[in-house]
TrEMBL record:
Protein's cellular compartments: Nucleus
InterPro entries, per the entry: Usb1
Functional description taken from the UniProt entry: Phosphodiesterase responsible for the U6 snRNA 3' end processing. Acts as an exoribonuclease (RNase) responsible for trimming the poly(U) tract of the last nucleotides in the pre-U6 snRNA molecule, leading to the formation of mature U6 snRNA. 3'-5' RNA exonuclease that trims the 3' end of oligo(U) and oligo(A) tracts of the pre-U6 small nuclear RNA (snRNA) molecule, leading to the formation of a mature U6 snRNA 3' end-terminated with a 2',3'-cyclic phosphate. Participates in the U6 snRNA 3' end processing that prevents U6 snRNA degradation. In addition also removes uridines from the 3' end of U6atac snRNA and possibly the vault RNA VTRNA1-1.
Biased composition (Acidic residues): 9-18
PANTHER family in UniProt: U6 SNRNA PHOSPHODIESTERASE 1
Signal sequence extent: none
Taxonomic lineage from the root: Eukaryota, Metazoa, Chordata, Craniata, Vertebrata
Name of the protein in question: U6 snRNA phosphodiesterase
Origin species: Pogonophryne albipinna
Length: 263
């Protein structure tokens, strides 16, 4: 079955100032007697010499965590192929999801080339995914300080899960029970952090390509049927698409955590 988708704080330091026992930089007010007119003692204030305090520079890693302004590039859809965020970018919020990675074989890539060429001929220009995966969660917003406890919770829940092999027809056609076991463990962690769990009746699939804008009209005019025929002919051949589920991954922002499954 073919499934297509469109898509500082600053710290001040106290400077060490060299001192001389007979000549200090800061003296208290001293009393001197005026021997010329025999007048009363008067106070002569010595000027207190001060050295300006310098500030230690912040490490670059901290400056990167707290930029002065929002990076305009994060909201510029033209820098992402026309794609628009499903939720607004906010400092400290990390888009996060859990998935099984799929490493395509040569035959898989050949099929994709045929599918994209067929769609292009029908006026639907699709862009190949940069990587392929099978989602085990929705994309959720995770606060930065939740990342460590979230990964620890995932790791604990997946301790007993074993690796397995599943078969793909763009949509999973075997291994559904094992994948649901993984989703169940992921949902436990999502619930613990009051985040959305996965869909009630999920259709597990691998997304192949995406497009900017609405190409529903072009896809309906014979394009979907023709692409489905290409997939059907491929599935009837000797090559079978397989996904070796040996590790689960959790991506949050630009960080990726890996959780190997038991042999």
């Amino acid at each position: 079955m073919l499934v297509c988708y469109s898509s500082s704080s600053e710290e001040e330091s106290e400077d060490a100032v060299p001192t001389d026992e007979n000549n200090s930089f800061s003296r208290k007010c001293q009393e001197e007697e005026d021997g010329n007119n025999g007048g009363p003692a008067r106070k002569k204030h010595k000027i207190e010499q001060q050295t300006p305090k310098s500030r230690l520079p912040l490490p670059g890693c901290l400056l990167a965590m707290f930029p002065d302004e929002e990076d305009a590039e994060t909201e510029d859809s033209s820098l992402h192929g026309g794609r628009i965020r499903s939720f607004k970018h906010e400092r400290g919020n990390w888009a996060s999801y859990v998935y099984l990675p799929y490493h395509p074989e040569e035959e898989f890539m050949e099929l994709l080339e045929d599918l994209l060429s067929f769609a292009s001929a029908h006026g639907a220009v699709l862009t190949l995914q940069e990587e392929f995966h099978l989602s085990l969660s929705q994309t959720v917003v995770l606060r930065h300080h939740w990342i460590q406890p979230f990964t620890q919770s995932l790791k604990a829940g997946l301790m007993h899960c074993k690796r397995f092999l599943t078969f793909l027809g763009m949509e999973v056609c075997a291994g559904h029970v094992q994948i649901m076991d993984l989703v169940h463990e992921v949902d436990k962690t999502m619930t613990e952090f009051h985040l959305d769990t996965f869909y009630k009746d999920p259709s597990f699939h691998v997304s192949l390509a995406w497009c900017a804008g609405d190409l529903t009209g072009q896809m309906k005019e014979g394009c979907i049927q023709g692409m489905q025929s290409l997939v059907d002919n491929h599935e009837e051949g000797p090559f079978v698409l397989q996904l070796d589920c040996e590790e689960l991954r959790f991506r949050t922002g630009n960080k990726t955590f890996r959780f190997p499954l038991k042999p």
